[in-house]
Each structure stands twice: as C-alpha cells, then as structure tokens.
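Record passed on here:
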Amino acid sequence: MAGTLLAPPSGVPLERLVQVALERGYTAQGEMFSVADMGRLAQEALGCQVELLCGGLGGPNRDRVLQHLIAGHPLLIPYDEDFNHEPCQRKGHKAHWAVSTGVLLGVPGVPSLGYAEDPELAGLFHPVPSTPCQPPPLPEEGSPGTIYLLSKQGKSWHYQLWDYDQVRESNLQLTEFSPSRAADGWSYVVPAGGLQSGLCGQALLLRLHNASH
C-alpha cells in the first residue's frame, strides 16, 4: 500500500510489516485498530516521516490534507469499506485502511501556468512535471462533488475516485468493534477506548524523510 510509494524500489514485503507489527504488539491477526500504532509501524518499517491527524478530515484539517496530497505525499485513512471498496457508514464494523495518493479538484476556470490539459479528456488538467505551478484555489468546504480522492483499499489492485465528504464522514463514525469479530473466537488487539479512541476521526500524513513540507 503506502509502502510501495515510500520505500526503496525493492519495497518492504508485507510479511515484514506484519512481523514487525506482531513483535511490537500492534496486531494479533493482521488487524490494525490504532492509527497511532500504524504511524509507529510506518516510521520503523518504512523509515518515513509521520504526522498523526486528529479531529477528522474537515475544518482546518481539510486544507492540510489537500495540500499534502497536492504536494505528492500519501495519506493513510481508516474507514468503513463497502462491498465495492468505497466508503460507507457501518459504525466501524467494516473498518479497513485506505491509501490516498492524489486529488481531483473541480475548479471554475482553467488553471494557471504549469498545467497541461489531458490529451484524451477535455477539461482535465495535470501539473506539468518539473514545472513550477500555483495550485488552484481549493473549493469551498461543503461544495458537493468538487473534491475526489484517488484512493484504494489496502488489498485492492485498483484505484478509485472517492468523494471527499464521503471519506470524511466514514472516518468520523468509526466507533464500534464489529460484533461478528467479537464473536468469532479469534483474539484482536483493540486499544483502550476501542475504535472511538484508536481510529475515529484520525489519519496519517506520510512523507519521505528528505521531502519538503
């Protein structure tokens, strides 16, 4: 997931990540119900800078998240996964992790210098590599359908465009441990305070150590 974006080209094998998480007591079956533990795992195993974001993806955190993605850095988000991997609201019963690596902004006008129009899709503009560009003004919070995150669930092979508000709302309602998991006879590592304290309203901003803010 994020490891393929931040680690050396050889990558960090999933088995290594799971092994470190088991040794540190972050997981029992591969589950991760603590954003703080996931951040510590990323620091140790991937050698990256980690910023734990609290208070949800809205309000003042919204611009921080969007600028982070515009700068080319990945975001790790816990959310409830629907049958098609997209965000849903199941009170945390379907809690999974997603990585976001880009953002699609709906803006009223053609971007300034430093952007090139997609050759196949009119009206879609990309930053020109190695060319200074001024990011477009961010859409107002609450404007429907203007911000999409390029994201994928941890085990999915395919990226999808997810509405920002749907991701934000899914992340904010992770409050209950799944009853089916609680009754399946397996052991899990759940932080004190449950999902409410471990996942709800939290995310991770990841950067390479030599990356600028």
Q: What stands out?
A: The chain has a mean pLDDT of 91. The two ends are 22 Å apart (CA to CA). The beta strands are 49-53, 75-81, 87-88, 95-105, 115-117, 125-127, 147-153, 160-163, 203-207.
